[in-house]
Amino acid sequence: MRKVYRARDIEVSFDLDICIHVGECLRGERSVFELNRRPWVLPDAAPAGVVAEVVERCPSGALQYRRLDAGAQEVVAGTTTVTPLKNGPLLVRGRIEVTREDGTVETLPRATLCRCGESEHKPFCDNRHIAIGFRAPGVPFKIHLSPVRLREDQPHYEHHFRQRLVFEPVQRTLLEVAVSERADAGAILDVGCGTDRLLRAMRGIARKAQ
After folding, report:
1. CATH 3.30.70.20 occupies which residues in the chain?
2. What pTM was computed for the model?
3. Nearest Cα to 186, choosing from 3, 5, 27?
């Protein structure tokens, strides 16, 4: 079910059931997206244009926005494209109409669809491909990094939440990526969609940064 967070200039909505927990939002603008706060989304904590840009990075379509300030809405591609992600789901961009069990229809600009066949939220991915060790060719998913160094007193840990794999730090944000102090802002880590590989990469970078 989609929850709406409304501010003066922009409205952000979030559907936990289709989120694949890549964490682009949390790394993109921490003043707006912060797990250790209620509400965890504050759309008025940054300019509407910045919020919209970060929301559009969400591959699953779990996050969407609606501009209330006469600003440009998200441009939906005229042609729908489907890209298989390495060891992960199908990344779909374009006009995507989803019919729910109750008959309601939702239109998404972005979605990640199950390719392993084990998702409990079909047609959407729920990260079950990680748990079963799914392997298949595809395009590596590129995650935008922020120049943040992992602190030893705030380690990451793994746990299951609502039957999906989630990675969450003790006091900071979901999937905060550790990079060395020499890393440039906006650097990109080229990893497969499987977040097990992401964790290994994060730990390796953290060791080098110490």
Report:
1. 2-67
2. 0.69
3. 27
